[in-house]
Design brief:
Strand order of the largest sheet: 2-1-3-4
Radius of gyration: 18 Å
Structural class: alpha/beta
Number of strands: 4
Helix content: 25-40%
Shape: globular
């Protein structure tokens, strides 16, 4: 979408809980939609997190965040916004939070697509064992998760750390997963063409994300 003849192209804004999440989501969006890649920008503010915001405070939060995004739009026209927030709960909790985010920001002049992993972003990395192995060959492939419903994993980050430990290794000395690895895992998953089915396991929140990116 380029808008009026001669107008600057409209870009994609990505908001998220932290830099690691934002960069990983940027890579995933660009890989799934190469036509959007050149116009993606990640922003630290606004922190569009609504999970723990009571209903009566949502309108004022949407207004404040919207003002910041309108300032961004004045500099670089916006096509759509991806807002990331972990569900911090098992599926189908991601569905409730997606609805809350998108309803909260429905008054914005651009589409808002909620990016909500269940339990958290690390849940999705279980989908790509070959990407994990490519990031760090010493990591163990978590074969026990093959075909499983990943949306039922609690505390996915800690479970991923444990799952990558080779037999006999000591957690205190072995370099396992850290949040800083997220962008590199996303890059490897894209480079190895793992973002399209068939996947190693099942994740409804991943499918919801892919659908939103495809339709953006």
């Amino acid at each position: 979408m380029t808008g009026r003849r001669g107008a600057p192209p409209r870009g994609v804004v990505i908001l998220g809980e932290d830099d690691h999440d934002r960069q990983a989501i940027r890579i995933l969006v660009a890989a799934l939609r190469p036509d959007l890649a050149a116009g993606i920008q990640t922003l630290r503010k606004p922190m569009a997190l609504v999970k723990n915001v009571p209903p009566q405070r949502l309108p004022s939060k949407a207004q404040r965040d919207g003002a910041l995004l309108r300032a961004v739009h004045a500099r670089q026209p916006i096509r759509c916004v991806f807002m990331h927030e972990d569900a911090d709960a098992v599926e189908p909790a991601h569905e409730r939070l997606i609805k809350k985010i998108e309803e909260c920001y429905s008054g914005l002049p651009w589409p808002v697509h909620a990016v909500v992993p269940a339990w958290e972003t690390e849940t999705w990395w279980f989908l790509f064992p070959n990407a994990l192995k490519a990031v760090r060959p010493s990591w163990r492939i978590p074969t026990e998760y093959a075909g499983r419903d990943l949306g039922r994993i609690r505390n996915a980050k800690e479970e991923l750390k444990k799952a990558l430990l080779p037999s006999g290794s000591k957690p205190a000395t072995f370099k396992t997963y850290a949040e800083a690895d997220s962008a590199l895992i996303a890059e490897k998953a894209a480079a190895l063409e793992l973002l399209t089915p068939p996947w190693f396991a099942k994740s409804a929140s991943w499918l919801a994300f892919v659908k939103k990116v495809t339709e953006a």
